[in-house]
Amino acid sequence: MSQAATLSIASPPRAARRSNLGDMIFAGACYAAGALVLLLLGGIIVELFLGGLPAFRAFGLPFLWSTEWDPVTEVFGAGVSIYGTIVTAVLAILFAVPVAFGVAFFLTELAPPWMRRPVGTAVELLAAVPSIIYGMWGFFLIAPLMAQHVQPALIDSLGELPGIGVLFQGPPFGTGILTAALILAIMILPFIAATMRDVFEQVPPVFKESAYGLGCTTWEVMKGVVLPYTRISVAGGIMLGLGRALGETMAVTFVIGNANRISTTLFGPGNTIASVVALEFGESETDSLKLSALLALGFILFVLSFIVLAASRYLLRSRLKA
Amino acid sequence: MSTTTHPVLSPVKDAATAARLGRGRKRADRVARLLSLAATGIGLIFLVSILVTLFVKGFGAMNLSVFTEITRPPGSNGGLLNAIIGSLIQVALATMIGTPIGMLVGTFLAEYARGSAFGNVVRFVSDILLSAPSILIGLFVYQLLVLPFGGFSGWAGVAALSIIIVPIVVRTTEDMLNLIPNTLREAVFGLGSPKWKMIVLVCWRSATSGIITGILLGIARIAGETAPLLFTSLGNNAWSTNLSQPMPSLPITIYSYAGSPFQDWIELAWAGALLITLAVLLLNILARSLLRRGT
User: Fold this and answer.
1) Residues spanned by the domain of B51
2) Predicted pLDDT of residue B220
3) Where are the transmembrane segments (chain B) (predicted)?
């Protein structure tokens, strides 16, 4: 099938010379554009690494876990923001995955056909809303809601429990790690839900029909046939959501509280790599150690997202081939 | 079927057990359906809540001066005109730069590099760039264009946005070209056409609606991008159409206004947020309906 694309055709010599030139130029442009994409990725890695090099040199490997961030004495560490990035992203996954699964289950198995497209589109539109809008919405609507209702309720109900109680203590500011994770969860929900829906739809109908023929309920078909059949792609979709959550900037900057400390409670303020870079960048001078530290943070974020996104693509490769 | 107490299992005790089991399974099914419905409801509630918040606060703050006045100090009835124009200029230029590159890469992947190792690497990298944090694109352009050329500029913002739009166009272009049957290509070759003519006059033309969909989705994405502009075009409170100077943009203005303590600035931020969201959602819906009609 694909040989057609590489067929070479013997044409009359005069026309051939002209068309060969056209072909060479066009093919050259296409190859150059392809190479440009590789250059872009290489350029991003190299520029971020070179920019962060002074900070890596000054602080060495402990930069990764040091929790200091003091612009006055010029001591910088990435510990708090790496912690905040990972905690908010993982919490967001914990919140988003069950909901996304529910949405995908509804869209593929339960919803009447006329409902699938509008509801599916509506969920996908959530992915189109710009990050900054989520930030404003989270800051002006969700954060007050958290402060007045959700967090006091959580403190009363879960705060007393031994062990996990410590996660739900402290003053209910509204902003903080938990709120940031919640907003992130809403933002990555459509990506995970859309991937799950697409892979659920690829399960051969005959498998499902056999299970129904044995007397399975819809839920048993989902649990026993669809999920096992698609589990690798589902994991890929979750990794895609994780990759997105790691690098979200504007929404998180609005609601995370922006403090350079690691709190035991989920209500405490924190920061993420992206929010630190976005906030502190304007206050750092050219060639300062602080700017270098921010670029080093960018490099670390890039490595993190690259690993997660590459894993996601690897897991989703069967879907991509189909 | 499992719920009826059909006397296949003859002993009475077994029939009762079967009925109980059946009821349990049916209950689990009902619970799962309910939870799934609730999850979908939750997802929709978020969308509705965002839209309602934007409409209520945005329309409340919307008036003519938003479109006729430029940004002013708090308390002096400013608007968003310069930010809107700045955004339009940067998004338009970025689309003009990024789209041809993205189309060429997509064409490369679909027509020249199907199954080749180099093509697979390019496809992989393009997909990574598609989901890579946009703030890092901003940092990259800062290192590449802002530091060496002495300052923030509209051009740097354009560069950052065009890098972001490329992988979106790549993905849709490749997908659309892959849908074209090879018999069509063979027919064109059979007429003695060179490959580039085959691609430009036949493949691109039959994939037009899909490619335009990709471009529209790309525009929708970069129109709302804020983080990469923080380090590139920076923002500007004055009237500025000079691309070698810092340039205002709607997302950046919203960002700085929404975080300010001044009520009239916050209201302007809501008006801007409504404008951007409406534009982005309309572009998305337009792109989707175009794709549906095209295929």
Assistant:
1) 19-61
2) 95
3) 34-60, 80-109, 121-146, 152-170, 199-223, 268-287
pLDDT in tens, A28-76: 999 999 999 999 999 999 999 999 999 999 999 999 998 888 888 889 9
Name the more confident of A306 and A1: A306
A265 vs A4: which has the higher pLDDT:
A265
Query: Residue A87: pLDDT above 60?
Result: yes
Do B48 and B98 share a domain, yes or no?
no
> Are residues B187 and B256 part of one domain?
yes
Q: Which of A23, A34, A298 sits opposite B196 (nearest CB)?
A: A23
- Partners of residue A277 in chain B, C-beta under 8 Å: 135, 139
Q: Are residues B184 and B203 in the same domain?
A: yes
- What chain A residue is nearest to B112 in terms of C-alpha separation? A5
* A37·B129 Cβ contact <8 A: yes
Residues B189 and B128 in one domain: yes
Residue A6: closest C-alpha in chain B: B112
Contacts of A50 in chain B (CB under 8 A): 143
| Residue B160 and residue B136 in one domain | yes
Q: What is the pTM of this model?
A: 0.90
Three-state DSSP string of chain A: CHHHHHCCCCCCHHHHHHHHHHHHHHHHHHHHHHHHHHHHHHHHHHHHHHHHHHHHHHHCHHHHCCCCEECCCCEECCHHHHHHHHHHHHHHHHHHHHHHHHHHHHHHHHCCHHHHHHHHHHHHHHHHCCHHHHHHHHHHHHHHHHHHHHHHHHHHHCCCCCCHHHHHCCCCCCCCHHHHHHHHHHHHHHHHHHHHHHHHHCCCHHHHHHHHHCCCCHHHHHHHHHHHHHHHHHHHHHHHHHHHHHHCCHHHHHHCECCCCCCCCCCCCECCHHHHHHHHHHHCCCCCHHHHHHHHHHHHHHHHHHHHHHHHHHHCHHHHHC
Of the residues B11, B42, B61, which one is the last residue of a structural domain? B61
Are B172 and B49 within one domain?
Answer: no
Q: What is the mean pLDDT of residues A150-170?
A: 84
Instruction: Read off the pLDDT of residues A183-217 as tens digits, 9 standing for 90 and up.
Output: 999 999 999 999 999 999 999 999 999 999 998 99
Task: Answer with the one of B40, B61, B82 that is the final residue of a domain.
Answer: B61
Contact A277 B170 (CB under 8 A): no
So what's the ipTM on this one?
0.90
Is residue B5 in a domain?
Answer: no
